[in-house]
Structures
1.
Amino acid sequence: MNPDLKRLQPYPFERLAQLKAGVTPPASLAHINLSIGEPQHAPPHLAAEALIEHLHQLANYPVTRGRPELRAAIADWLTQRFDLPAGAVDPERHVLPANGTREALFAVAQALVDRTRAPLVVCPNPFYQIYEGAAFLAGAEPWFVDTTEASGFLPDFAEVPAEIWERCQLVYLCTPGNPTGAVMGTEALQGLIELADRFDFVIASDECYSELYPDEDRPPPGLLGAAAALGRDDFRRCLVFHSLSKRSNLPGLRSGFVAGDAELIARFHRYRTYHGCAMPPPAQAASIAAWRDEPHVRENRARYREKFAAVLDILGDALEVRAPDAGFYLWPRTPVDDTEFARRLYAEEHVTVLPGRFLSRETAAGNPGAGRVRMALVPDLEDCIEAAERIRRFLSRL
């Protein structure tokens, strides 16, 4: 067995199941699950129709690079969404389809990390646990940068010591952040690019929440846009990861992509050819339809805005909570220990939330997720309102 498997930590939902073990919630209340970021809005019909229409292509082996039409749709979307120069994203050199961001974020560390050089992988804290597992199984050590209220819930890379950067081979970003919803600005992204140039590491920017934002006139910036604004049309040392799971309510399709530095994409493509992770042809057809359509994405954002407004209207004066910059999570401070809060809320009101400490690791400053919980506003509006009312009722008893 690979000895690095022993280094993997229990997944947050395993710990949550243990926390809830032995608890019997009120049978009179239907369960409302706010713990997992699984979109519940209906997928766009155009994607489902394209999937069905191309089921006959299951008779064909897909290629790792995907159909040219898919790469072109992705390149066009990136160019329009992040205001990139025309032709800056070459579908042949800068784009590689993936089966969702999760598998690509994990696999990229396996392809790019040189385990012979005592490597470090720098991650935000709290974080998506795939980053840590990817680092361990690539033979690297994760090094965490706390994202706290004091830092605007963003990683302060200026505080990272030079000796850490000298060993760093890969930095995972998550912008908009999970679970905080914080968005890194263009200037901060450019500052990290300059650090990557200085210390020779790769930036992997997880941008899977980028299309869920409150103001239609202010979409979150992305790493490729920040690079282009510096005049870097080669996107050197920059990779971005996007998905249709949150943008288009298609988590079951397992469709996303990685784009950026052509040299890194070429290396990653070679790895993925052996990895055996080509996207099935019907999923590619559905993905093309989804990436080429924006009305369903705008409708999706409007539904989340409605839910945030309703829930915050109920909880705003009862809990220390604010609307995120983007994404679909609330990240409130709890009046009691976060694990106690989650366990009692489930026991008394049959509502599940995720303790913040399960998404974080201890550092010298403590656990930055402790004393907070993650609430995913993914159920329908009525269930989100019902959950908020139950949470308020629960808070009145604390």
Note: Residues 295-315 form the longest helix (21 residues).
2.
Amino acid sequence: MANAPAVVVGRPDGSGLRKVTVDGKLVGQACSAGDLQKILRHAGVAFEGIQWIGGDCTVWPGCNWRRRTVGILMAAGLLATAWELVLIGRVDSFHALTYAGRITGMIFLGAAVAVIAAAAATFDYWRKRRKGYSGMVVFIGVLIALMVNVLLLLMHMSSRGYTPYLRIRVVLVAWCIWALWILFRSRPWKGIRYPVRIVAGAVVPVLLAVANMAYTLIYLPSVTYPLVQASAQLGTASWDGRRNKMVMTVRLHVVNSGQIPVYVLGSIYWINGMTPVNAGPGQPQATFRLIDSGEFIQPPGMSLSPGQEFSEDEYVEIPQPDRFKSVEAKVELYMVRKDKTTINPSYELSKAGRGTLKKLGKSEDPPGPPAYYFRYQADLSNSNELLNETRGRPRVTLWWVYQDKYPYLAVAVTAPGEKPPFHVEKLVASDKANERYGLEKVKGSMTQKTYAQLLKEAEDKSPAGGAEPKPTDSGRSG
């Protein structure tokens, strides 16, 4: 027995584990008598002649349900954080619309790897603690989880929107605070040289990168703006002798002259006739009458890349043109930036009138105008998955409103669950939508021709000595 190795079982540490040494060499940490037997058997030492420090063979505070529960909760919280990091990172790394968004996705994937490693380390730190650095890995993983969840929660609050992930953020932030409290009590950095440098080297770069990317994606204003130009050009007039009507073609033209690609949500053109009236001093000298109107960009939701053009010719009939002093054409359209959002392909197929919606039993979401209309509607995706999870996917609705005197377009971009009352001015002047998605109204240049010009064109185009009927001179106005 004189040559028997000296076996010493130390006092329980903060987690209830007892260090086991053989001849002064650490061979393991035990949490129960059975665990101690396994350690000694592996070391080739008999289970006898043991020196007990801080309690005999009946003192095993680490062998209880509380310690195992803490370890399970630690791993669960870390894995939940890693899951949300992977969800965001795998999408943004390849599909974000901006370079900054893709870099953010890669950072999130890197942070997910670190958090998964921390989750794996919990199985050692809350059991045998055979790896001296496992506690430090868990500590760094929890710090990364705290930064990420606090950042996402702040983004939720700043966007003032609701998504199903909001409750998860709140729960995970509370979990991070609890996990840090547990770790500070157990002091996992014991026995590690330069723990502050290790934490700073692992956490600070991630914090700075994520904070900078969040600022760039959300708060930094765009320095480049889209430039889309639209115009309507009246063609040469001619007479339709059989119906005694003046006819002409109108060239409707749109070009993206800027550097930003856009989606055209909807378009409208108007052909108006100016009718002379007998007015007194200080009163308008003419009034406009709608001749024709319609949408001209098909399909709605089409994209226009920088330098791309779109043209459409509309055939217009002007009944009794001698009643008009002049004829004018103008266009208008709505667009959103393609570098800030992606529109669901179902938009172009979503055309439905008010009567159709009622027949199908669908509610107006959001509420539409009181007049008759047809609408296009679809969900928008933000420029990256990070914004989709914190802001939600908004819905864009464009109404093409029929009105006897003057049809018009109206657009609304609404957050999930939001149903604002219909109001044309407020819908158009949505600063939040303008800033986030580049929603903008484009008013095209207007062209106008007097009745005298139209009549001369029609006469010049008619065959010499033609018998096509002409309006009476009494209806002409120069």
Note: Residues 7-52 form one domain.
3.
Amino acid sequence: MGIFNFLKNITEPTEKNMDNKSVPNKSDNIKYLNEIQKEVHQYLKPLGFKKSGRTFNRQTEDGVWQVINFQSGQFPIGENYEIPGFRESFYGKFTVNMGIIINELYKIQIKGKEKSFYQDYDCQIRTRLPQLIWQNDYWWNINSETAKTSEQIIEGLNQKGISWLDMFETREKICKNWGNVEGSSNIAKLDVALIIFQKDRIKGGQLFQEYYENIKSHKGHKEYVKNLANELGIKLKENKAE
């Protein structure tokens, strides 16, 4: 059975199979995660990814960046931190975050300045590698079996992760796919409207209007969209029934 077949057969990872290894101390955590990341880097480097800390970046179009990030669980503070079924401790474990950032959206929505390197929390489009593999959240154990773990992650990226990123490698693909793939955000259509608005103010404004009209609830969000339109010089038409 291949590694990816093994991954596909784990439909619902459980805490039991996640915790079958003892949790390493902090120095071992760093050592083992470094070893895993080093192997994954060897796979990602020829694909154009650069590394900084626990994060990889690849620019696929001017102003469009793809992000892969290793997130390790934080040390639980306080003896009552862990509440089974409500708040779990992920210390001694890690997961893999993935995302896409479009610079103009970052500047408009976050009011952020262009960066030389982006983190997953900067991204407008986000997922996790386990979600792509199992449609479920999963955190790998950090332990001495680094070769096995890195092989699983590389196989998951090769079979699922990179193809997901490829759907959003250009603005054209983002406008086509964002909002039409599983896991799309509710504000995907707003993101697409903002991208199109940069090159076609009329069409982008129309999409902006359509998005605004279809906000059914969340008065705070509707007010945010209205203020954003004012900033961009988009004149929204109010629904007379409101």
Note: Residues 186-242 form one domain.
4.
Amino acid sequence: MAPSPTAVPIELTDDERQTLEAWTRRRTSAAALSQRARIVLACATGEGNTAVGRRLGVHRNTVLLWRRRFLEFRLDGLLDEPRPGQPRKITDAKVEEVITKTLETTPKNAPHWSTRSMAAEVGLNQTAVARIWRAFGLQPHRQETWKLSKDPLFVDKVRDVVGLYLNPPERAVVLCVDEKSQIQALDRTAPILPMRPGVPERATHDYKRHGTSSLYAALDLSTGKVIGALHSRHRAIEFKKFLQTIDREVPQHLAVHLVLDNSSTHKTPAIKKWLLAHPRFELHFTPTSSSWMNLVERWFGELTNKKRRRGAHRSVRTLNADIRAWIKDWNDDPKPYVWTKTADQILESITRYCTTTTDSGH
């Protein structure tokens, strides 16, 4: 076996040693550069390649490579060489132009830019525009809706409802109440074709209407159970009947706190008179345009996704029977929704959003 070559000694200047030590300590340094710096520092102590490799956990050939690179090019030899490939063609100015036009302008014949229209506008190809948009998180084709409540008592109502969610009173039940009106009994004009391997379930796009129903629901905050009632109309009369249903369902020794919206059917003289005769009921109104604060809306979403969206009903009677069956199944294994954000967190989030929107010039 041929003898191992003698390792060429490395002598470092003070500046080189400081730079190498800084490269091993800085978190922003690449892992590869940090390792190369440790190899050179170890070689500068007079150790051979094999000993340095054993101590740092690398192959002796790796130590030999970076020892030679450092002796030939000093610190510059430890840096990565430019990789092969075409030089960059899109300048920073061109990237800025794409971003500025995307954010501040719209095309003449469309409500938003597409990759093709922007590419034609700035003189790039479609792929380059898509890459720039992806890098900066721009999606001109998307639009989301938003609405801020103009309720003058918004802060007070948020604190009232959230306080009820996070710290419900003792010897009381908290019910989130709302109505889902105009639920349509829809039937497809042709039978739904079942799913087959490689073919999804298929339904005709057109349908027949067979009437509507209105669902009143009260979601128990602590248990997740739902008190439901179906009516053909949506008036204060039906709401009063639902209050009577709740009164029968909830044990008489418990106070009843209802979280509900500001619908006019909840505030008629007949409703107020009924509430005066039933003092254990207390109403907590969510702010206007803030249905997201009523947890029963989340339950309505479950009902829509799991029962109504792909259902077919030839009559209101079958629709109501389906809904009642779904409520029964839900109550057999209820899942309460847990509110986590405090009123202060909600108000701070809204404040930040308003500040950001105002600062952006909108």
Note: Residues 96 and 132 are 10 Å apart (CA to CA).
